[in-house]
Amino acid sequence: MRQLIFLLLFTLVLASCNSSKDKVEEISGIQSDYPKDTTPRVTGIGGIFITSDDPQKTTEWYGKNLGLATDEYGSVFEFRSANNPDEVNYLRWSAFKTGSNYLKPSRKEFMINYRVQNIEGLVRMLRNNGVTILDTIATYDYGKFVHILDPDGNKIELWEPVDSVLTKMGGKTTK
Question: Which terminal CB of the chain, N or C, has fewer other CB atoms within 10 Å?
Fold first, then answer.
């Protein structure tokens, strides 16, 4: 009788674990053959862009006073993926010259870049929802980009990154 109860409990635990890919991987430490989540959505922040009358001076100030590891484009922040801690991810902080066309048509002095998955599906969904898409998806070795406007006219950059390429490129990062 004990063995039967144990077998039933074990089967229930195993069945509940198999109902979720994340639980299986969490408990076993083994990656399963379940399909990866490809839901078109934002997964995090990919960049913060501000304007400055003197971007070089501003970048140097952030390096000196706030400890950012800077390069000619600003600073790259390195962090780990919450879903895959072995995976290194990146976020770019940059100062652009006041009046830069890069942030237009927004009249704001900043732009946020969001990391996304399935950028093609996300653009289709956004278009169906009546969101203003400013350009077509641009593809580079390190990811795909597209720009949209939110209801307040803020320009938003969407980025589906290929972090492994950025890791291979190397360079200083803020950790």
Answer: N
Angle between helices 2-18 and 21-28 (to 10 degrees): 120
DSSP codes joined into one string, 79-136: EE-SS-TTSEEEEEEEEEETT-GGGTT--SSEEEEEEEE-HHHHHHHHHHTTPEE-SP
116: Cβ contacts below 8 Å, ≥ 6 apart: 40, 41, 42, 43, 122, 158, 159, 160
Spell out the domain ranges in the chain.
1-33, 41-169
User: Residue 115: what pLDDT?
Assistant: 97
Q: How far apart are CA 3 and CA 28, in angstroms?
A: 23
| Residue 46 identity (one-letter amino acid) | G
Q: What is the fold of 41-169?
A: 2,3-Dihydroxybiphenyl 1,2-Dioxygenase; domain 1 (3.10.180)
